[in-house]
Amino acid sequence: MKCLHCSNEMTNYEVHKTLRTMSYDVCESCGGLWLDKNELDQMAVQVEGDIEYCATEDASDPASAKHCPRCAGEHLRRVKFLGEEDIVLERCDNCSGFWLEGGQIQKINDRLTKLMPVKGTGFSEFLTETHLPHYYKRIKRHSAETDFSTPVLPVQHAKLLGKTSHKCPTCENLLDSYKTYGIKIENCSKCGGLWLHQKELKALKDRIDADSWGNLRWMNDEVVAIEKSSTMVSNKSCPECSDSRLLSTNFGNSKIVIDRCDGCHGVWLEGGEFNEIVHYLREELNHLTSKEMEKKVAEAVKKIWSDGSESKISEVLDAKAAISALICISIYEHPPLAAALVKAGIAGKTVAG
Question: What are the extents of the domains in the chain?
Answer without folding.
Answer: 11-146, 159-276, 288-353
